[in-house]
Amino acid sequence: KSFVALSAALHICSGMDWMGLRTKQGPVVYVAAEGGGGIYRRAAAWAKTHLDQEFAPGFNICITPLNLTVEEEMTSLRMEIAEMPVPPCLIVLDTLSQLFGGGDENQATEISEFFRAVNQHLRAPFNCTVMIIHHTGYNVDAANRPRGSSAIAANLDTLLSVQRSDPEALSCKMSVVKMKDGERPDQPYYFDMESVDLGVNQHGERQTSLVANFSDKAREAAENLKSGKYSSMILRMLDSGQPVTTHEMRTEAKPLGGDNADNARRAINRVLMKLKAAKKIYEKSPDVWVIER
User: Fold this and answer.
1) DSSP 18
2) In whole angstroms, what is the distance from residue 71 CA to residue 116 CA?
3) Which has the least CB within 10 A, 68, 98, 142, 214?
4) How would residue 241 be classed by pLDDT, with cut points 50, 70 and 90?
């Protein structure tokens, strides 16, 4: 999670497109409450890879232990940020559990109070985006949602889920679970982890760190694999020669769409157009399909 968040933050402060998407350049504040000093090596590795320099200008790191449920500490952070010559466009809080102090993340009232404080002290005064990094639930059913109270997701405009795509590989995928404004992408984004050599430290020890690089090829391969899955299903249903409706295909495809029912609907629509363009099927009447013979 932190590597992907760091990638987004550093692309933003450097004014570079991220995952092919336009960014609005501006200073970034990264509150590294988990991992501490390791954030400097990670930022240096990114700057070496993308900028060919030691550090990214406009990237500000805070490793001071903070309990942001305490008003004095939240106020102190706000006042430090207010001293910046240019207000930040992004503040990253990494992680919720470390900055939540003795709060109970399972209590909706405490979570809601924390989010109100973040809005009052950080988001509103600087008119910026606040990204909060948090862990997912422990069991399989909760693997795609934030650990703790449902109020966490309810208080967010956007919710991104980052998971290892392969436990044995240095890669991960990021899915958009919630997007309050705008159309939510139904395909995940993939990242490969690259090890970067940072030279040796004062003790003669070699230093390395990882950088999360967006992978177009990995996403394209995953989309092709998913499209192939739906294509096979559609052609199998039509193989008898009998007409099949779009509704019947969507119903059959629901188990392939995972937790989100819209995934199957969108995928069926997309694959039907591809098969039609390839002249493998044709539309006998609106939303009624037969196979080309």
Assistant:
1) B
2) 12
3) 142
4) confident
Residue 181 and residue 166 in contact, taking contact as beta carbons nearer than 8 Å: no
Q: Is the pLDDT of residue 140 over 80?
A: no
Q: How confident is the model at residue 121 (pLDDT cuts 50, 70, 90)?
A: very high
For residue 247 the two structure tokens come to 């509704």
H or E element in which residue 62 lies: strand 59-62
| Residue 72 half-sphere exposure toward CB, CA atoms < 13 A | 0
Q: Given phi > 0 = left and psi -120 to 50 = alpha, else beta, which region is 101?
A: left
Distance CA 89, CA 75 (A): 18
How many Å apart are CA 154 and CA 157, to the nearest integer? Answer: 8
Backbone φ and ψ for 191, nearest 5 degrees, come out as -130, 140
Over the stretch 190-221, which tens digit does the pLDDT of each residue have? 898 999 999 988 888 889 999 999 987 655 55
Mean predicted confidence (pLDDT) in 64-76: 94
Flag whether the pTM goes above 0.90: no
Helices (H), the chain: 2-13, 38-50, 71-82, 96-99, 108-118, 124-126, 151-154, 216-238, 246-253, 261-277
Look at residues 123, 77, 115, 73 and name the one whose alpha carbon lies nearest to residue 96: 115
> Comparing C-alpha atoms, which of 39, 29, 28, 37 is closest to residue 2?
39
Distances (CA, A) of 173 to 21, 43, 127: 17, 21, 29
Contacts 24+ apart (CB under 8 A), 218-222: 218/165, 218/171, 218/190, 218/192, 219/187, 219/188, 219/189, 219/190, 222/173, 222/187, 222/188, 222/190
Mean pLDDT of 17-30: 95
Chain center to CA of 128: 18
**Scanning the structure block, which residue is given the tokens 């973040």?**
118
Residue 229 corresponds to which tokens in the numbers above? 């899955």
